[in-house]
Structure formats: C-alpha cells, structure tokens
Design goal:
- InterPro entries: Amidohydro-rel, Metal-dep_hydrolase_composite, Metal_Hydrolase, Metallo-dep_Hydrolase, OTAase-like.
- This is Imidazolonepropionase-like amidohydrolase.
- GO terms for molecular function: hydrolase activity, acting on carbon-nitrogen (but not peptide) bonds.
- Residues 131-150 are annotated as: Disordered.
- This protein is an alpha/beta fold.
- The protein folds into two domains: 4-57 and 355-397, Urease, subunit C, domain 1; 58-323, TIM Barrel (Alpha-Beta Barrel).
- Helix content is 33%, strand content 23%.
- It contains 13 helices and 18 strands.
- Strands 1, 2, 3, 4, 5, 16, 17 and 18 form an eight-stranded mixed sheet that branches. It has a five-stranded parallel sheet with strand order 11-12-13-14-15.
- Strand 11 (180-183), helix 5 (202-214) and strand 12 (219-225) form a beta-alpha-beta unit.
- It starts with a strand and ends with a strand.
C-alpha cells in the first residue's frame, strides 16, 4: 500500500456536523495522523486540497452486486464466470460513485469479498450475507405458478421449517456470512406472493436469529408492512430492509430493540420508470406503486421517531447507475447531516465496524472522498458523483 498525505482539507466530523481544516496522513491502509501542517517524506504521495471538503467514504447498506438484471430468476441460469464478470463491473462502478464499503444482502459470497480484499477486482469493501432465506412461495421463490420443479438458484434459497432454516443459516455462516438475510414478507420482484403477506413463522424467524447470535452475527429482514416488520423486530431481527408501510408500533419496536431501518426509496423510483426495460416482469411492475407512495412517509415517521436510519439503494440491472439519487430523494424529509450519517457512521454501526469505517479518525480505514461542494449546505453534492474529485480507499488513490 502506498502512503498518502492529503494536505489542508476541510474535514467533516459526521458526529457533530462541524468542519475542521486539517491534513490527513495515511499509511498501511489506515489513517495514522491528522492535524495542521503535516509533513511527509519525499516518497509519500501528497495531495494539496486547498480547503476542499473531505468526507469519510460512503457506505451503502443495501445492495445486490450480483444482480446485473432485474429478472432475478434468470440469474440462476447464468454461467458463474459470466455473472462474476458482470459483478466486477457493477462493483467498480459503485466505488467510482464514492461507495468504499457496501453491505450485500443477497447474492454476494466469500469469493467476491476475498477477490476485492486481495485487489483482484476493484470495488467497495464487501460485507456479504450469502444467499437469502425464503419460504416456499416467498419473495425468494422465483417459480411461476405452473412450475413444480424444485427451487431455486440465484440470490436466494428456499428453506421451510425450523430445522431447515437452522441448517441454511448455519451453512451461510460456515461460508463466512457477515449477516443472515431472511425474507419476512412479500416483495416486488417475486411472481407468486403478495406485498402484504407475512412470511416465515415466528418460530422460524427466532431460530434464524438464534443461529446468527450464536455466531456473533445478526439477521436482516426484508419486510414492508407493519405486521411483517413488527413480527421480525419482536423475533430479534437487527435491521429491517425497506419498511415502507410501518406504523407507530413499529417505531416503538425499533427503539425498544435498538434496531435499524434501511429504506431504499431509489429502487422504487427507478423501477417505476425502468424496471420492465431492465428485466422486471409486468406483474412485478404492477406491485411497485403499492410501496412507492409509502416510502417517504415511513422515512419521515422513522426519522421523527428517532429510529437509526441507514442508507440503502437496492438497485438491480442497469438501474445501479442511480445509486447516489437516494441522497436527493431523502432530502424531501431529512436534514443533510442526518442523511450523511446514514451513509457513514450509522451504517458503520449496523455493520459492526464503528471506528473502522464511516469516520475520519486515527486508526480507521483510510476511506476518503474529496468534494468540490458542501453536502451539508446542499446534499445534492453527493447525489451527483461528478462532484467527487478524489476517492481514496484503504489509503490508495482510486480517482
């Protein structure tokens, strides 16, 4: 790793919202020194920032790097090497949009994480959950009604009953999963379920949570309606993905269980316009409107209620390019600093990496963005990657 000195930047402290003019020295992939007027040996690369804004590298808490199409069932038929090539391109683009770490919540595996860590592919640091767990006929079951073949490949796996979900969870943990994803309600991209259905019994949910906790990991749950969200939180799930149709009881449960909500507004915005062209079926497109309108209301309620919110995009296929637009959508109901925290320090908390990522503190990974604008004055600066002039990941200048 090359040592790097970023001289005289205006660094945002995401915990306070204050800026301080300082320099940052990176060595061994970490931030090793901050302060005014730092110097470095002649062989250290130096960037003179001239007072430009510096942020921690961004964190997207809900991605599918192995989803080059919105036709999730079709992915199971792809050659693994062909899928890996597409995935490498998706990951590289994410990094160049400023996301230095992402949490993949169905599809990515240890091979992709290792390849990124070893520098074989360029992309964000990858916290992966392996294949998501779905009940028969649930959000991860891609079969049409007339298809009686055994299920399934792609981003998910079917497991029914307490014993089966325990085995599935243990197997993903064996392969190094950072978290376990369960599909606890109906979804948009699945062909035979309803958005308002609850999926997995309470006993099944609790069994998965118990296995994750035994391995010092946690469970993330796809869930839309208050009924599904509340069941999952009561079962011990740590993060709710989407949550577009939550109620006041949901807000109380989030606080009671110290859980996280990961809204993904941009995916519905994109699916409404581009979903079918990106491989989404017409029947799935018809479900988008059911959750689209509730997303901003849920975000506003959660923000007002003190729920810990994390940035998520959940984009598929050609829609990945809209990843940063989530910043623009959230500003309708949130303050810029809170949105920045959702993509930095709060996301780091969810990933169990507080102090490691999402901060510009000594000892953290040297993941940094240099901007030509102030995102606290205008969060739109982060909504357009053209405002990112430099990207540093693990002390290496990416762009």
């Amino acid at each position: 790793m090359t040592d790097l000195l970023l001289r005289q930047g205006l660094v945002l402290d995401v915990s306070t919202g204050d800026y301080r003019e300082t320099s940052i020295r990176c060595a061994g992939g970490r931030i090793v020194e901050t302060g005014p007027n730092l110097t470095a040996p002649d062989d250290v690369q130096v960037l003179d920032l001239g007072g430009a804004v510096v942020l921690p590298g961004l964190i997207d808490g809900h991605v599918h790097v192995a989803a080059p199409t919105a036709d999730l069932a079709d992915i199971a038929t792809w050659s693994p090497s062909y899928l890996a090539a597409h995935t490498a391109r998706i990951m590289r683009s994410m990094l160049h949009r400023g996301f230095t770490t992402v949490r993949d919540v169905a599809g990515a595996d240890h091979g992709l994480a290792d390849a990124q860590a070893e520098g074989l592919i360029e992309g964000p640091r990858l916290a992966f959950g392996g294949r998501a767990l779905s009940q028969t006929g649930g959000h991860g079951d891609g079969r049409q009604r007339g298809d009686d073949r055994s299920c399934c490949g792609g981003l998910s796996q079917v497991a029914d009953g307490v014993d089966a979900v325990r085995t599935a969870a243990r197997n993903e943990l064996r392969k190094g999963a950072h978290h376990i994803k369960v599909l606890a309600s109906g979804g948009v991209a699945s062909p035979t379920d309803r958005i308002d259905s609850t999926q997995y019994s309470e006993d099944e949910l609790r069994a998965v949570v118990a296995e994750a906790e035994a391995a010092n990991r946690y469970v993330a749950a796809h869930a839309y309606t208050a009924r599904a969200v509340n069941r999952a939180l009561e079962a011990g799930v740590r993060s709710i993905e989407h949550g577009n149709l939550i109620d006041d009881r949901s807000i109380d449960l989030f606080r009671e269980h110290d859980a996280f909500l990961v809204p993904t507004l941009v995916t519905y915005w994109a699916l409404a316009d581009e979903g079918v062209a990106s491989g989404l079926s017409q029947s799935s497109r018809a479900k988008v409107d059911e959750v689209l309108e509730g997303g901003l209301r849920a975000l506003e309620s959660a923000d007002r209620g003190g729920v810990r919110l994390v940035y998520g995009s959940d984009l598929l296929g050609g829609m990945h390019r809209h990843q940063n637009h989530e910043f623009r959508l959230r500003r309708e109901v949130q303050q810029p600093l809170d949105i920045v925290r959702a993509a930095t320090s709060t996301a780091a908390d969810l990933l169990g990496m507080s102090g490691e990522i999402g901060t510009v503190d000594i000892g953290a990974h040297a993941d940094l963005l240099v901007l030509n604008g102030d995102p606290i004055a205008d969060i739109g600066v982060l909504a357009d990657p053209a405002h990112i002039t430099h990207i540093v990941q693990s002390g290496r200048l990416v762009r």
